[in-house]
Design goal:
Structural class: alpha/beta
Mean pLDDT: 93
Number of strands: 15
Distance between the termini: 47 Å
Number of helices: 12
Oligomer: single chain
Shape: globular
CATH superfamily of the largest domain: Dihydrodipicolinate Reductase, domain 2
Helix content: 25-40%
CATH class of the largest domain: Alpha Beta
CATH topology of the largest domain: Dihydrodipicolinate Reductase, domain 2
Largest sheet: 9 strands, mixed
Number of domains: 2
């Protein structure tokens, strides 16, 4: 029986395509995440990066030189880029608090948008982005590259197959024993939210996508910043000492929540940039007919930490089926993210990671922050869009 179960979850492969047309692409924000976007765009035979924008003088020019983009025009902000170019798409790679305005303006200019995670800082911003998307008729996809991981896709396939029965409880999360970033990540004025938005959005998406993104109802949340606000656990960067970074730190480095979802599902969640553990635990999906254990990773990186285990009863016998790791062959996750975005533009959609789903993800993050501040359970607010 175990062999039969295993055989029913064999990996699928997706054909990578290129088109006769050339996609004219701009990148808004040239920080470190933009490097991954640029490298992946340069791996596509039908893409030309024609424009870059960054608020810091000289930064876009240095980026263009580093990646050999001699023909790319550089702009001091996203508005001048959008006004000065005829583009097929932009990647929005700015710090978090600028995501919403850049995405809204790009959509209003008639440009397809690949928006880096988190989608926004607040759920109201997420709703505003979706309204702009609907008004523009253009494609908006959110940059959740873990969706492209074959093992992540297998989690959804297992749950949707019905082998677990009705899912009623999920435990998920992840973190790093020491993994506090610097730069714009640690200040509320640029990041808005900390670990909760940086890697928490990925962890939430892994399980919410698997169960079909039910509507979130209530949240009891907690956040803290014991490590980020201590210079013992901060690191110097090119511009600040460890003590200065600790003084700047005003976002969360740990978050936890108990989330009630429509359909009687409860979600026990925790995420961390720093703690005295290597992991806060495996992901567990419990159903009435079976359960799935997804091993965690020591540094949450958007995949699984080892072979998954499927627990079921067969003819009165308790069985465990080990699902081996699917080899990550072919293009990397970022290349698949970029390629799926371009394919969706060419075909007219749907978006690889649709905003309608990530609105719920953002609403949960928003509610965790509000609940933590209020010190009590709150209702999840999802604006009409």
């Amino acid at each position: 029986m175990s062999d039969n179960v295993l055989a029913s979850f064999t990996p699928a492969r997706r054909e990578e395509r290129a088109y006769d047309r050339t996609f004219r692409v701009g990148i808004i924000g040239t920080g470190w995440i933009a490097e991954a976007h640029a490298e992946s765009y340069l791996n596509q035979p039908d893409v030309k990066i024609v424009a870059l924008a960054d608020l810091i003088p000289g930064k876009a020019e240095a980026f263009a030189k580093r990646y050999g983009l001699a023909d790319a025009r550089c702009y001091p902000d996203h508005k001048s880029l959008l006004a000065g170019e005829q583009l097929d798409a932009v990647s929005v790679c700015t710090y978090n608090t600028a995501h919403a305005q850049c995405a809204i303006d790009a959509l209003a200019a008639g440009v397809n948008v690949l928006l880096e995670k988190p989608m926004s800082v607040t759920v109201q911003e997420a709703a505003d982005i979706i309204r702009a998307e609907k008004q523009s008729g253009k494609l908006l996809s959110i940059g959740f590259q873990p969706r492209m991981d074959f093992n992540m896709q297998k989690i959804r396939e297992i749950v949707q197959s019905g082998v677990l029965g009705k899912v009623y409880y999920i435990q998920t999360g992840g973190g790093r024993r020491r993994g506090i970033p610097n730069s714009t990540f640690i200040e509320k004025k640029t990041a808005g939210i900390g670990a909760l938005g940086d890697i928490g959005c990925y962890s939430l998406d892994m399980v919410l996508n698997a169960i079909g993104y039910p509507r979130p109802l209530t949240v009891s949340g907690y956040t803290s910043a014991f490590f980020g606000q201590s210079e013992r656990y901060q690191y110097p960067d090119a511009f600040h000492t460890a003590a200065q970074n600790a003084a700047r730190f005003d976002v969360d480095d740990f978050a936890a929540a108990f989330i009630r979802l429509e359909g009687g599902v409860v979600l026990d969640f925790r995420i961390s940039w720093a703690m005295h553990l290597d992991t806060p635990g495996d992901t567990l999906i419990l159903g009435t007919e079976g359960a799935l254990r997804i091993p965690s990773t020591e540094c949450w990186n958007g995949t699984v930490g080892g072979p998954m285990k499927l627990y079921t009863d067969v003819a009165g016998l308790q069985t465990v089926t080990e699902l081996p790791i699917i080899p990550d062959e072919g293009p990397g996750l970022f290349d698949r993210k970029i390629r799926s975005f371009l394919d969706a533009i060419e075909s007219g959609g749907p978006a690889p990671v649709p905003s309608s789903q990530i609105l719920y993800n953002q609403a949960i993050i928003d509610a965790i922050a509000r609940s933590a501040e209020a010190g009590k359970e709150v209702e999840v607010v999802i604006p009409d869009v």
